[in-house]
Structure formats: structure tokens, C-alpha cells
Design a protein that fits this description.
heterodimer; A: 15 helices; globular; B: mainly alpha; 11 helices
Chain lengths: ~300, ~260
């Protein structure tokens, strides 16, 4: 099977140097394409390869190929890490949706029109600041002698150590990703056809009925896209579990980090964990594209 | 209009605004407090700001971060814009694959990009330095810029370029005098986004820095890991003010872009 000869005419060097040529697809798409190919696609294939070399450590001769690194992930201690990562992601995504939906709803449909844009910008403004510093800010609130305990003590409630607990991780993750949730839900709610709501009200539907039967179905793609984005971001977050979760909140990103920059230096195992993470995220996105509205995915 | 529950969503929203700004306000308050450890107010003081501005290590880290972000964004602005124009204007076999590749940096988690880049750099024996961080940052910077520019191209009127060509403009002239001015707000918005992401990046920098460079997030991370550092509070306030400035600029760019689109 030979491909059909392409109908390109013979190109002379004069043609190549003519200005029109510089705007050809090779010039436009070549540099960025090469960059992504060399610094992202090739490296990803490389970690796929070394993930298949069991027991690979930095500076040690490697044996043959095998699935040893992937089998190592199935040990209970590592399965617990993966389970914890998923729990952090599912829990904080649910919290973001629960807290973010009323905010997006109010901003899109109930806030004063004149101030709407400004109010939205004000809500997502914290995204412009360092995520590291925002997580750090919570350590000053949640530590034993922190602001939260001072407030609790002031109103006579028992104090406790919040820092280095799963609760702190949930608070930190929800705080970090709530603006994304609100932003995407807002974009979806803004396009809501409010005439349908009025028609439903005219026909005697209660506000509750029209909410569940008209509003929610219309913005379901937005909810799915926003939840997916928050899910994959929280699943692989590193900063919040490290700063707020302490030793008991080891998640998949921290485990991978330790294989490379920590004491273990097990590059093969770390690469296998990275491949599993990439696979999980790709699967989630494939599900959304398959069952969700494609437009919301590409817009966000 | 049917009566609707007006009070609870607005009240709840106000509470969420408080949630978003509470940690920032706490940091700001602590940065002016004279006490080092306790939650109590130690009296007004500027000592942490003095400590901050005489901290050479921190200032050097800030300088490293700015160099990385500015160089990576500047090169990515060109590559990302060219890529967006190419994807919008040309059809070629494997375009779907190419487009998929352009989304990869947005999809693959940072930690996996960081690991892959480190393994790659080690396998080709490139010494880690400021340059390797810039190269790695360009991967996600150009992808984000391309996405933002693409969404703007889609909303442009293609007839303008054709009109320019019909009236005798060369392709180069049409690109620089017709297309690029229209894309400018999108390019600028993409650059601002990429700049913020680059300044914020901890993982990819950590894996590609080696001993050769020490950008700000790595320096901050290594300090706050070991406990509360009041001079970091002061630094936070300075950085938050800087980000607010950038956010304002971005909002202005968006406003400018919308107005420009309405004019055409």
C-alpha cells in the first residue's frame, strides 16, 4: 500500500525563501510542534519505557523489561495512597460543587447586572496569587496556636489541632479549586435560557420544580466539565497535601515526588506511578468527551 | 415574577467571599504584627518587611523566577501564536493528532510532566540550570497561549484578511497589519496567564532546576515546610499586591478585546 503521491509541485529554493512560504504550515506549526514533541511526547514515552524496567534506580545497571513496577503499586501500602488520593479528589470536588454552585447561581442570575463582572473577578482574584502561599496561609490559620483555635476558644468551643489532618487537606483543596468551579459553572449558567424558566412559572411550576427540571438539565454539561477539572487537579495536587496534610496525608503526587527527589530514588517505580496517574486522568477526560458535551470541554 | 428565595443564596455567597479572602486577610494582618509565633497581635511593626527587603537569597530567587517567566513567556508568545494561527488556517494529514498534542500540557498532571522532563534531561545528559527550567516552562506556556489565541481566532472575521489580500497586500502584510492587531488582546491575555502559571510553578521547576537555579516557589516551599515564617507573610502581601495588579491588567485587556471586537 503506497500513499497517493501528493500533488505538490516541485519547490525551488527561491520559492522557499519567498515571504509567502514563511507563513506556510511548517513555519507556523513546526517550532511549537517540535518543542512539544521533544520536551513532552518523547519524555512521556521515555518514562513509559523505564516504568517497564523493574527495580530501576538511578545509577544502577538495569535488568530486562517486566511489569514489576506496576505490580509493586498493587501492594496494600501503595493502594492505600491511591485510595487516599481518590478520596481527597472526590471529597473536595463534591465540596467545591456544593459550595460553588450557589455562588455561581447568584452571580449569574441574581447579582446586580452592573456589578456582575466585577463581582465575578473579585471571586476568582485569589487564583492570581501563588497557590503555595494560599496553602501556607491556611497553615497559619489551622496550626494549634492559630487563628481558628483562637476564634473557637473565644466563643468557648473546644480547640483541637487541625493542621496535619485530612480535614485540613479537604479545606485546603476546596479553597484552592473553588474559584475554578465557580468560573466554569458561571459560564454555563450565564447561557441559561431564562425564557424557559418564565414559561415554566407561567404554566404553574414551583421554583423547586423548574430548578430541577429546567435549570439543572441545561447546565449539566457545565457541572460535568467543572467537576472533572477540579477532580483531576485535586487528584494530582502536591502543595496542599504536603503543607497541610503532614505525614499521614501521603498522596500519589507526593509518592511520585519522593521516588525522584526524596531518599528512595526508585525511578522505575516513580515512572510507573506517573503512567498510572496519566492514564487515570486521560480516562476521566475520555469519559467526559464520550458522554458529555464536547463544547464545554473545549471552551474551558 | 414569582417570588424566589432571595436571601439565602446572597447570604451564602457573601459567606463564600469571606472564605476566599479570610486567609489573605490573616496573612496581611500577621505581616504587620510584631510577634513571631503566637496567634495574638504583637503590636504594629514593619520589621518583617525590613527583613524581607534585606533578604538577598529571597530577592535572588525572585529574580530567577522573573527571568524564567519573562523569557519563557516571550518565546512561547511567538511559538504559541504561530501554532494557533497554523491550526486555524491550515488543513493537513494528522491535524487531529497535532491538536491533541497541543492540549497535552493542559491535561497531563504537573508531577508527571516534571518526572518525564527530568528523566529525559538525565537521559540526554543535559546539565540542569536556569535554561532547562525555561525550556520546561515553555511547554505549558505555549500550550496555554495557543488555547487563548485560538479561541480569539475563532471569533474573528476571516473576510478581513481576504479583503486585504484582494486589495493587493502580501501574505506577510496581511498577517502583520490585519491578523496580528486583531489577535493582540488574545495574545496578551494568554501571556498574562502563562506568566502567572510560570511564577506559580513548583513541581516542574523543582525537577528541572538542579543546583543551577533557585526560583521563588522552590525557596518559599523549602522555608514554609519547616514552619511559620513571618517574613514570608510580608512576601505574600507584596506578591498578592503584584498579582492584583496583573489581574487588573488582564481585566483591562479583556475589556479592550471585547470593545475591539464590537467595533469590527
Amino acid at each position: 500500500m503506497t500513499p497517493a503521491p501528493s500533488p505538490t509541485p516541485a519547490v525551488t529554493w527561491a520559492d522557499r525563501l519567498a515571504p509567502r512560504r514563511w507563513l506556510g504550515p511548517v513555519t507556523l506549526l513546526g517550532p511549537a510542534g517540535v518543542w512539544l514533541l521533544v520536551l513532552l511526547v518523547l519524555p512521556t514515552l521515555l518514562i513509559l519505557e523505564i516504568s517497564l524496567v523493574p527495580g530501576l534506580r538511578l545509577g544502577q545497571p538495569s535488568g530486562g523489561y517486566g511489569l514489576g513496577n506496576y505490580l509493586q503499586i498493587l501492594q496494600p501500602v501503595y493502594l492505600r495512597v491511591i485510595g487516599r488520593s481518590v478520596a481527597f479528589a472526590v471529597g473536595s470536588t463534591a465540596l467545591c460543587l456544593l459550595l460553588g454552585f450557589p455562588v455561581a447561581y447568584w452571580l449569574a442570575l441574581m447579582s446586580p447586572q452592573r456589578w456582575r463582572n466585577l463581582l465575578l473577578v473579585a471571586f476568582i482574584l485569589p487564583l492570581w496569587t501563588s497557590s503555595l502561599l494560599r496553602a501556607y496561609a491556611w497553615t497559619t490559620i489551622l496550626r494549634p496556636s492559630g487563628v481558628l483555635n483562637a476564634m473557637l476558644a473565644a466563643i468557648g468551643l473546644p480547640t483541637q489541632n487541625w493542621l496535619n489532618t485530612p480535614t485540613a487537606v479537604f479545606i485546603g483543596l476546596t479553597y484552592s479549586f473553588l474559584p475554578y468551579m465557580v468560573l466554569i459553572l458561571y459560564a454555563s449558567l450565564e447561557k441559561l435560557d431564562t425564557r424557559l424558566l418564565e414559561a415554566a412559572a407561567d404554566l404553574g411550576a414551583s421554583p423547586r420544580q423548574s430548578f430541577w427540571k429546567i435549570t439543572v438539565p441545561q447546565i449539566l454539561p457545565g457541572i460535568a466539565a467543572a467537576s472533572l477539572l477540579v477532580f483531576i487537579s485535586t487528584l494530582s495536587d502536591f502543595v496542599v497535601p504536603t503543607l497541610l496534610g503532614g505525614a499521614s496525608s501521603m498522596n500519589i503526587s507526593r509518592l511520585i515526588y519522593n521516588q525522584f527527589l526524596g531518599p528512595t530514588r526508585a525511578w522505575g517505580f516513580g515512572s510507573a506511578l506517573s503512567m498510572v496517574l496519566i492514564l487515570a486522568v486521560s480516562l476521566a477526560i475520555a469519559l467526559l468527551i464520550r458522554y458529555g458535551d464536547r463544547n464545554t470541554v473545549t471552551e474551558t | 415574577m414569582p417570588s424566589r428565595p432571595v436571601t439565602w443564596p446572597s447570604l451564602f455567597t457573601a459567606l463564600m467571599y469571606a472564605f476566599m479572602y479570610f486567609p489573605i486577610i490573616v496573612l496581611g494582618a500577621y505581616s504587620f504584627s510584631d510577634s513571631r509565633y503566637s496567634a495574638s497581635w504583637g503590636g504594629f511593626s514593619l520589621r518583617w518587611y525590613r527583613a524581607l527587603f534585606s533578604d538577598r537569597r529571597l530577592l535572588a530567587a525572585l529574580q530567577d523566577s522573573l527571568i524564567i517567566a519573562i523569557v519563557a513567556v516571550a518565546i512561547s508568545a511567538v511559538l504559541g501564536t504561530l501554532m494557533a494561527i497554523g491550526l486555524a488556517r491550515h488543513r493537513f494529514p494528522g491535524k487531529g493528532l497535532y491538536r491533541g498534542m497541543s492540549y497535552l500540557p493542559l491535561i497531563i498532571p504537573d508531577i508527571a510532566i516534571a518526572v518525564a522532563t527530568l528523566v529525559f534531561l538525565a537521559s540526554v545528559a543535559v546539565p540542569l540550570s536556569l535554561g532547562t527550567i525555561i525550556a520546561a516552562h515553555m511547554v505549558f506556556c505555549l500550550a496555554y497561549i495557543a488555547v487563548v489565541v485560538s479561541s480569539r481566532i475563532q471569533r474573528l472575521d476571516p473576510n478581513l484578511e481576504e479583503a486585504a489580500l484582494d486589495l493587493g497586500a502580501t501574505h506577510t502584510q496581511a498577517m502583520f497589519k490585519v491578523l496580528l492587531p486583531q489577535l493582540a488582546p488574545g495574545i496578551l491575555a494568554g501571556c498574562l496567564l502563562a506568566f502567572v502559571l510560570s511564577m506559580d510553578d513548583l513541581l516542574i521547576s523543582s525537577f528541572t532546576a538542579g543546583g543551577g537555579a533557585n526560583p521563588l516557589p522552590i525557596e518559599i516551599f523549602s522555608r514554609v515546610r519547616t514552619g511559620v515564617k513571618p517574613d514570608i507573610n510580608a512576601l505574600s502581601v507584596m506578591l498578592i499586591l503584584g498579582s492584583a495588579l496583573l489581574a487588573g491588567l488582564a481585566e483591562y485587556v479583556r475589556y479592550w478585546g471585547n470593545r475591539q471586537r464590537q467595533k469590527t
